[in-house]
Specification:
Elements: H1 2-10, H2 17-25, H3 34-40, H4 45-59, E1 65-69, E2 72-76, E3 80-86, E4 90-94, H5 97-102, E5 117-120, H6 127-144
Amino acid sequence: MKNAHRARRAHRPEKSAFSQSRSRMGRNSAPKNIDEYLARVPEPARGTLNKIRAAIRSVAPPGATEAISYGMPAFKHNGVLVWFAAFSKHCSLFPGSSVIEAFRANLRATPRPKGRSNSPRTGHCQLRSSKKLVRARIAENERRK
């Protein structure tokens, strides 16, 4: 019986840095905007997310807006462009599975769930790759429009 309990526990989803800090700080409400989300994320993840946010802004269309979607920061333009978030050991950019599949060969050869690109929390992130993924997602959203 103990082994079954351990197996179930091993498959629990990883907590985001936001949810960990929220529970530590006693904040049970979801963030209302990206600045509020980032204020709750500890360093060095906050710095990494700020770099990702700036990279997304630099390639996003002028009409793109920031939002919180599924409890994560997101940019929207003709639908959601990308989501990004901090987790306990990495930061992730979620441009959607079709974009990840299109760029699979260009991304680091690390196993990752479908639809996500990871960066370590230490501040190093693949900004060029992130920009390419966002541009591809913008083109995808424009085609669906």
